[in-house]
Every structure is written in structure tokens, then in C-alpha cells.
Amino acid sequence: MYYHYINWIWVVILMISKDYSDLYTFRIKQLCKQRGISINKLSEMSGVRQSSIDNIINKRINNPGVVNLHKIAIAFNMTLAEFLDFKELNEFSFEDNDTLEE
User: Does domain 2-90 sit in CATH 3.40.50.720?
Assistant: First the structure.
């Protein structure tokens, strides 16, 4: 029940902010919760420094880079395509977001 509540909160935050970097944060947190993995454990499993993952989660990095995302995907036993294939990212509209650089 708690997980579904947290997931719903993130969906609302994403709908309000529509910040592209929130999508990666949401996905990483969602998968960590689902699989019972801490950020520290994800760092160990992926080979991505914990500080880098913390920077992604805390939105100090807006573009985490494909290599780090690929390593994180592999840690979740997913391809990069599977990691990036989720509803909130698929429904993101660049036209509706004027904060992105062109």
C-alpha cells in the first residue's frame, strides 16, 4: 500500500513539474522500491559512483548521460531500451515543456 502511495505522489509531481530530469529520478526510485534496492546497493551493482546516482536523484545533474543510464539499466537486469520504456517518459511532450534547451 505504501509503495502505491509513493508511486502516485511521483506521478502527480511529474504531471505538475513536467521536468525531464524528474523522469529519470522517478524511474530509478520506482525500480529501487520495486526491487528493494538501496541507492548504495544500486551504485555497487551498476559501477556508477554513489555520488553520481545521488546527483541524478537530487537533480543536480539534468542529463545523466547514456553510459550511466545504461549501467543502471544493466544493474536492474534490463536493457537500456527497457529502462527507458515507461509510461511517464513515453507521454512526455517536448512541445509542452519550454524549459528544455533546443
Answer: no
